[in-house]
Amino acid sequence: MAWFKKKNEEERWQDLNQYLTNSFANVKSDTSNIFEWLKFLYQKSTQQEQLISQLQNQLSQTPTSPEAIRRLIDSHYAYSNIHGRIQDLNRKIELLSHMHDSHNQQINQFHEKFEDLNKPPKQPNIKERIIQKLTRNSKNYAKTVILSFIEKYHKIPALQLKEMLVDEQKLCSKSSFYRLLQELEQENRVELLSDGKNKLYMAKNPLLKR
Predict the structure, then answer these.
(1) Does some domain include residue 137?
(2) Residues 135 and 124 sit within 8 Å (Cβ to Cβ)
(3) pLDDT digits (tens, 9 = 90+) for 118-164
(4) Is residue 156 part of a domain?
């Protein structure tokens, strides 16, 4: 009987010990949770204080002078104007997108015309051939006159020859005169000599058939 009583007391002590162990474990867990919540609440409190500080700073920077308020209003309406212009541009872009097909058609027509311009030219008609022949004959006539003056004076400065044939006789323009001289030189019918700053022309062979 005494042994049985002693065993019951040991079981009660073991149960009590287990209960206390579990209780302390629960207290430890609850304490840890409480610390986590305190940490979370502290962070939230710090964030709210920072937000309040920022709001107070912004309120302190709110313009109070008439000039500052006017600038603020002007900037607001300037933004509104820019926004309105952007909307106008969007409408114009939308309109241009609708006109895209029409523009493409015009571009295609332009390419067709450009291709027509790149085609080989047609054979000149009778009128064009007559004009070309008259032009060629006129050039040959002018060359003959220039060459005859050079042969007459044997050597003659280009400036003096230009004064006689262009300024006085109006044979051709100044630019055409010098191009004709260059052609005569290329045809080996005249020779260009240099006399200091002056350019002299001399007939290479007066008997050369012109």
Answers:
(1) yes
(2) no
(3) 555 555 566 666 666 666 777 888 889 999 999 988 889 989 999 99
(4) yes
Rounded CA gap, 151 and 201, in Å?
9
What is the residue range of 153's domain?
127-203
Total-model pTM: 0.39
155-157 vs 198-203, strand pairing mode: antiparallel
> Distance between CA 161 and CA 184 in Å, rounded?
14
The answer to whether residue 118 sits within a structural domain is no
Give the rounded distance of the alpha carbon of 116 from its chain centre: 31
Beta strand pairing call for 198-203 and 190-195:
antiparallel
Residue at 41 is within a domain: no
Quick count: other Cβ atoms within 10 Å of Cβ 189?
Answer: 20
Distance, in Å, from the CA atom of 90 to the CA atom of 107, rounded to the nearest integer, reads 24
Counted domains in the chain? 1
List the CATH number of the domain containing 149: 1.10.10.10
pLDDT digits (tens, 9 = 90+) for 25-83: 777 677 777 778 777 877 877 887 888 777 767 666 655 555 555 555 555 555 556 66
Burial per residue of 133-162, b for 16 or more beta-carbon CB atoms within 10 angstroms, e otherwise: eeeeeeeeebbebbbebbbebeebebeebb
